[in-house]
Amino acid sequence: MRLTTDKQSLLRALLAERVPSVCRDSFRTGLDCLDQLAPGGEFQYGAAHELLSDPRSPAPKTIALLLARAAQQQRVDKAGTNGGGAVVWSDPGHELYPPALLSSSPETSIDLRRLILLRCANPEDELWALAECLRCKGVSATVASISRLTQLEARRLQLAAERGGGIGLFMRPYTAKSHAPYAAATRWHVRPASGTEQIQRWSVELLHGHGGQIGKIVLIEVNRETRIVRASAPIADRSTPPQANRATA
To answer: pTM value?
Structure first.
């Protein structure tokens, strides 16, 4: 009972903690259909963003790469130029193959000179390291696949992102507990969509984001040959082609 009380007290303290007010910048992916769903038509820096997917499906790494790349390219460094900061990717299972990022599309490619792979021995060390990376003002995006996250842990990561000014991108399983209390500026449900041998598609739905278009869905597709990334609204009438747009970020 004492432990539970201590946790509740700690949670209240974290919820009451406020980071000094700063000018919150934002970024766009360049995919208009996707950006328009986000609050204010943009993704917020100094915040956590969650990408939820079916536990039986692969983690939505392509969508995470898209957001991480955009956050890095549009982050303004101390010299007043864009493209500042590193991307930290937590990869304890050695699943990410960096050379493959060089052959990805311009919208999802990351400069390997500014990519840091984080490989921790256990989940506790990983959460501590993620918070440290989020607090670092030299990091534009911190990416991780996290299966479980308590409200306390989520709040700590959120506060760390607010202090550092970059973004946290957390790929998490979409389960019955996904609607439990959390601390993220936006939450997205990413699902594989019907494609072809040449085209890979995902359905992306905004689940949470104050001021965003909750419940709206866009289709993100990647051409495996040209590596072009496009976004479009779901096709309701196949006799009318969708208005698709290519990322320019």
So the answer is: 0.82
